[in-house]
Amino acid sequence: MADDPQDARMRTIRARNRALLFVLLGLVALFYALTFVRMGGH
Amino acid sequence: MSDLPTTAIAPVSSAAVGDYVQILKPRVMSLVVFTGVVGLVMAPGHLHPFLAAVAILCIAVGAGASGAINMWYDRDIDRVMRRTASRPLPAGRMLPGEALGFGCVLAVGSVAIMGLAVNWVAAELLALTIGFYVFVYTMWLKRRTPQNIVIGGAAGALPPLIGWAAVTGDVGWGAVALFAIIFFWTPPHFWALSLYKADEYAAAGIPMLPVVAGPRETKRQMLLYTLVLWPVTAAPWLLGIAGGLYAVGAGVLSLIFTLSALRVRRDETDRAARQMFHFSLAYLALIFALLLVDHAVMQPILGAVR
Lengths: 42, 306
Known about the structure:
heterodimer, A: 42 residues, mainly alpha, 1 helix, B: 306 residues, 2 domains, 77% helix
């Protein structure tokens, strides 16, 4: 059965959104950890 | 007057996550990251391991940003060359504005985080690297002169300096030696590739040396650069930042690299050039791996002597 182009496009968008969510969460974690390391005098 | 509706339909992106990863040129990024790590490890001094990881992340993202902006600018010639035709932009999977915006955000973000988290000397060097690759190499030199990859190679040679500066806050002679190794390695590496892709470069209008000066002159210059690499790769040992293990290994590797250039000179087919291109990748990785191994072996000995 052929894949519906609309479904395929929605899957692509959902995957992009999830990737963006992980990047943003990663940035939050990065700045959180950075604050502790820099406040530690490094 | 036409009765057609005048509302423009915005083009729709079909770029997948993998396409965003692809425009960061992950294979180039891996070599950039590795040389940056070596600069960071070889530098005298200490950097908190987390900050060192952030510095490497920033170098990786900055390199990826350069790649994305390069793909945005070169999308017309990438369409012409078989090697690059399947990239997300020439293949039509990604909109040009997406690649440009993605690249710019990553460039600014990587420089800002490097400055805020590590130090501003490393951040300035990272900004210089991105700017040099985008404006000097991609936009100015690449389509104008056969010396494009010679001068433009400076951008690819800067990551060890960034790693070094992340630790020390300045640029020492040891870092300059690491820069010089990559700088003089770049021409024979790219000319080996362009020897067997000359027809594609000619079709795309890129004046690579084999297209402009012919294979004979290219092979002569490749050999000269491999000879220059002998003293250049010996520099870390002469400067005292690497020991005998590195010196012997670098000498053997440079001998093989020179012999491969001699084989290319004698070979009338593409075979030797293809082999030299693949060996050139191993050559640079092994030279920098030797620096790491030598450092790991020598540091405890030097510490015991002191």
